[in-house]
Amino acid sequence: MKSDVSRPEEELLGDYSYYYTLLQQTFDQMNDKPMETPVEEEGKPGVKTKGLKEILSSLLLIDEQEKSEKIEWDRAQEEDKMMLEVNHKKKTTAMLDCQSEFREIEDAMDESNRVRKRKSRVVTNAAIASVITTDSVDGPAAQKTTGAAGPQRRLWVKTRSTDWWDKCNSPDFPEEEFKKAFRMGKDTFDLICNELTSAVAKENTMLRDAVPVRQRVAVCIWRLATGEPLRLVSRRFGLGISTCHKLVLEVCSAIKNVLMPKYLQWPDDDSIRMIKDEFLSISGIPNVVGSMYTTHIPIIAPKISVAAYFNKRHTERNQKTSYSITVQGVVDPRGVFTDVCIGWPGSMPDDQVLEKSALHQRASNGLLQDVWIVGSSGYPLMDWVLVPYTQPHLTWTQHAFNEKIGEIQRVANDAFARLKGRWSCLQKRTEVKLQDLPVVVGACCVLHNICELRNEEIDPELMIELMDDEMVAEIGLRSRIAMKARDSIAHNLLHHNHAGTSFLS
Predict the structure, then answer these.
(1) Long-range contacts, stretch 427-433, CB < 8 angstroms, 24+ apart
(2) What are the tens digits of pLDDT across the range 397-423?
């Protein structure tokens, strides 16, 4: 019987059981009776020792055959394993070779692109050189063709119409029309241009002429005044959209750096005395140096900290999701800003905006002693902040005091109404990025001050009604000294006939 090493172990054991059984029976018979010489009887064979030898020899042959087959099987397995490893190495080598070929192809393509770009630049420079050479050779002839307009326009600059701006820039353009377009007269516009010339002027280049200073300033002021999209600004001034956007940011930054230190600053001692006298004549309240108000500027939903800029009160009132930043401002009796704090998220109440402002830091350093800044009920009563009474069931004295406080508050309210009315970009969401918005709003405040100081009247049609909800501060009383001082002021107003109650005396 031939053994098969690939067959299951149980099947092999079943094949050998016959031999083991036969061998066991033979040994048992040998133990029962002595071994005899084999004798053959007719028709009936006896037990023979020859059969035992044959069985043993068969078992030995089977065992040897199994060992040889197992050795052959192991050798075949090892050969297969070696073959797999060789094939794997060949595949890996082929993949690496393929990758290296791809890299060589990419390097060749990159080098080809670099050569092509280099050739293109050489051709462009040669064309420019030929144009310059032609201009220099022509001489007077070139001047005749170009005239006062300067060098001829390059071929790669798109031609746009500048008729509207040329008309506005003409000396014959009516003053009223100019003021309606730019929210200021020609003299004020010229003043701003002269102040900003050193900061915004650019030199002509070999590729194109620089945009003149007056046109740069005009693009910015028109954009702030109308709030029109950049594509419409581009059409009016004959410039590219990206150029207009860049000019607006550049001029606003120049206004902040050059004009803000001059036209928007905290008053000096002499100015403070004049401001106190003017507010005293308005309300009868002494030592008032400013009227404070906080408004909101709508913005597009930011990509980060969306919840912080969410304006819940505007959303509920307008039934439209609103996001905003805050602008806190202090004005003098003429409505000129003396301090601004711009850019805190619209979800912050007025008292928190005040705490984070430079004005609060100035007061903490002791620079606002013995003076009052009047605010609404959204601010807390502090040693330097005077606010109206907010508790229910006011006395006559408290009610009269609130009326006089309201007269000072209206100064700030009207100033912010003129600010937003004059610069319409503050009334709607703008295309300016959130990080650039404080510079733009700050420029609007500076331009507002220049117009106010130069008595530039605003068109009544441009005036708007502020829609900022006032809320009572969470902690309204933060100083007992200020509380006693407010009671004393209210008492003096009533008994010195400054509260409109002289008929009671």
Answers:
(1) 427/227, 427/298, 427/464, 428/227, 428/298, 429/298, 429/299, 429/300, 430/227, 430/299, 430/300, 431/229, 431/230, 431/245, 432/248, 432/249
(2) 999 999 999 999 999 999 999 999 999
